[in-house]
Amino acid sequence: MKLKKIAQCIALIGVSSTVFAQEQQAEPQRVEITGSSIKRIAKEGALPVQVISKSDIERQGITSAEQLMRVISANGTGTNNMTSGNNVFGADADRLVGGAAFASLRGLGPSSTLVLLNGRRVSAHGTSGKSVDLNSIPIAAVERIEILKDGASAIYGTDAIGGVINFILKTNYTGAEISADTNVTQEGGGNTRRASLLVGKGTLDKEGYNVMASLSLDKSDILRSQQRDFARGYQPNRGLSPDTTGTPYANQLSGAGTALGTGFKLPGDPNSYLQASLLSLTGKCDTIPGMSQYDAALWKNSTSILRSTYSCAYDYGGDYVMQQPVEHANLVSRGTIQINADTKAFVELTASRAKSKAELTPLQISTSIANKNVYPVGGPYYQDLSAYIPSFDNTKPIAYKWRASDLGNRTQETTSDNSRLLLGLEGVVFGKWDYKLGVSTARAKADTTLIDGYAYTDKLYAALASGIINPWVAPGQSQSPAAMALLNSTKAHVDLQGGTTKLTQADGNISGELFQLPAGAVSVATGFDLRRESYEFAQGVDATTILLAPGNANLPSVSRDIKAVYAETIVPITKNLELTAAVRHDQYSQIGGTTNPKLAFRYQPHEAIVFRGSVNSGFLAPSFQQLYSGQLTQELPNGADDPVQCPLHPGDPNYCSLKLDYKTGGNAKLKPETSKQGSIGFVVSPMKGLTGSLDIWEIRSKDRILNRTVTQVLANYQSLLDNIVRNPDGTINYIQAGWINAAGSQTRGADLSLHYDTEFSTGKWSFALDGTYTNSFKYHEFENQPYQELVGNFGTSDLYLRWKHNASITWSRGPWSVMGTQLYASGYKDQLPKGDIPPGFNPYVDAYITYGLSATYTGFKNWTITGGIQNVFNTDPPFTAHNVDDVVGAGWDPRVADPRGRAFTLNVNYKFN
Asked: Where found (predicted)?
């Protein structure tokens, strides 16, 4: 097949890879492309599908699905990776999930991206129960990845609003090969290693059977913030300084009945203060590692009482784990029998286990008279500040705020087990109709254990009140053996929580040519999808008894049945124009039915150009957690005002500064999130070897499923009146927080793809660029609120960058192949400091640009050796001054950047004869 003909085929299917250009076949083969149920000859398709081949993955040194998401420009820039995802704050954080990574096409969230394995669904993460954990995907066994950048609910049902990522594994392999990968950082920490074995026997066309298996073992080392100079939270000249006064050397707190009283003044200073530190008063905050003088200017609060001016601050943002230690084991096995020329049956088993450790900073404890954990008068470490603060009363106990470093980092270990058994039948009936049938069962289980840094609240408070523990350990000193023994006796080493999701599925479809029109054959497909989904979640211990332990209410086993039927047809109107129509109806046993159509066209006025477009609707069914998780009742620690009555009765204790109860948990009244979307674009091949495509897309969603805090409910009370539950006398009984259907969002942009293949006397050259331009992402929580534009602006959950791309240049000649890559993510407006802005402060975060280089050699018999460098110029993540309480990463943002720096990769593959 000539290069020009290959380029035309690529143009017609709109793929963003040269993978099909490398496959030359004497006879055209009917294939199924992600996003359609109709098997067709590849050159007849017209779908905006990006294809990433196994060789692309290996040459870029990608060893995990999370790294893969960074090179997909259509993937969002959000809190879906293992660094920011497990540390993110706020209502939208999935605190149940440990050690998981997710995809988020178009930045619509993991739940709006459908992840498939060989075209079929797999179980969602065991603890979350919402989305597929990418760590469960056996990357070592992946043949290619197809990314559909279009809504696909008309084909696949729920979750496909943002698009579909289909991981396609090897399915018919003969021989044996072993591979070893290593990825080592120049500056230490964060190294990864992998070993894999692939074996197969039998050929379907000659022997009538094939059996194959793949086993891979992966290990990723920990990377700490202290191992990278850019990860520092104390850079006040750039607008960044820690705002926490929970320090390893405690700050004293004011309060009635304590040594500092309700506030204190210093001689000659009319202001009243609430906190004090001996190190701050003596200018020695920086004598303790990670501590600094609290920067009151950057965090000033213009009230009559200044809280932290004479306190020390702690760089807790610079004390995070930037890459978790993870161990993976993945098994893929498949057996296929060719029953006859038209029928084959197969059984496929995939299984994986992942172990990860998430570390958070040590516990921050604020003691008080009410909690009976203040430092006692007469204790051996009583810190008398009367020499500095005249009003200090050394006859009273000391309240303080302390970072309990001696307890260790809060460490959670999560073990995730995933498996799927699939029985399938595929073939041809009546000589021309392709069919497939499948029955599968899948299970995902995740368990989280607290292994260090957590303590039982009552035991710890009693230990602090004893006075044996010293919250003011001087530089170079340590706790006494008795104090350490007492602290260790309070620790909670427990199985915290676990969840299990199960998926049982039967599916099938049939496709073929129905009849002939003057312009060609009318092709149709119809199919069914029957699923039972179930989920259960249990706390291994009452998390409320453990200080700052994460957790949720138990959710006994719940299940739901989904019945779906769908149909698709491709109608050639003329020789150059064809229309595609699809429709699917899903019936859920709890939330009812939904019907979603799709209409697309492909117009080819000339062999060198194709126009294409689609309009469709989509939906996202609420998860079990969102619907049914148990209700937890808690009390607002600082109180709140009744938003309706307090303005009418200012100062009335029945309505103002109330100690309110609030509830969080599931909402059985949630409706599915829905969308309307469309795209239009073209693919051109103006010259031999050159292919380009541009697709403009827009997605409008409504009834977005969001988790709202009690503060957000009160701030939007006019739209959430039912969430403020009142007593008969009109006073507030409690606030119902948790999951709601919000208003919606609108996003639009364009995907650009350019590929050029040519050959000179120097060898073969390939140039490629895949980029995504997001013109707008507007969001409003309630219908009566205006839309907010998020593109190019700082956000606490997702960032919506204007432009992202992955570009590459590849040269090959004989046994050699060399690839150079560039990853680009545009900058955005930074979060401004909450106080004074330093002179010269840069309110913009710079673009993040990294380069990679790799070389592959196949000159040794049976060997393939690939070596490379990631981040060739050792580019640091761009600086950002955001508040770490909003998004983790002191001085950098894990949603955008890879903290590992320059890394050296090596992949060695040996095929046995």
From this structure: Cell outer membrane
Cα dist from 178 to 66, 138, 173, whole Å: 23, 15, 13
Domain around 177 = 3-226+323-360+412-456+491-630+665-704+742-912
The proportion of the chain whose per-residue pLDDT surpasses 90, expressed as a percent, equals 68
329 located within any domain: yes
Structure tokens at 569: 């047809």
Identify which of 498, 536, 545, 451 has the alpha carbon closest to the alpha carbon of residue 96. Answer: 498
Q: Give pTM, 2 decimals.
A: 0.90
> pLDDT tens digits, residue range 406-419?
999 999 999 999 99
In a domain, 426, yes or no: yes
Degrees to nearest 5, angle at CA 445 with 439 and 450: 175
Indicate the number of domains in the chain. 1
3-state secondary structure of 260: coil
With beta carbons less than 8 A apart as the criterion, state whether 196 and 178 touch. yes
Q: Is residue 803 part of a domain?
A: yes
Tokens of 57: 């993955």
Do strands 163-169 and 673-687 pair parallel, antiparallel, or not at all (unpaired)?
unpaired
Measured at the alpha carbon of residue 670, what is the angle toward residues 669 and 675, in degrees to the nearest 5? 145
Tell me the C-alpha distance between 43 and 365, whole Å: 64
Is 313 within the bounds of a domain?
Answer: no
How far is 624 from 256, CA to CA, in rounded Å?
46
664/712 Cα distance (integer angstroms): 13
HEC assignment per residue over 432-478? CEEEEEEEEEEEEEEEEEEEECCEEHHHHHHHHHCCCCCCCCCCCCC
* Residue from 795, 790, 824 nearest 807 by CA: 824
Mean pLDDT for 525-553 is 89
Which two three-digit tokens encode residue 361?
């900073």
Residue with tokens 């005249």: 390
Residue pair 743/786 in contact by the 8 Å Cβ criterion: no
Q: DSSP code of 310?
A: T
Residues in the chain: 913
Q: What is the Cα–Cα distance from 496 to 544, expressed in whole angstroms? A: 11
CATH of residue 158's domain is 2.40.170.20
Please state, in angstroms and rounded to a whole number, the distance separating the CA atoms of residues 676 and 699: 6
Q: How far apart are CA 431 and CA 426, in angstroms?
A: 13
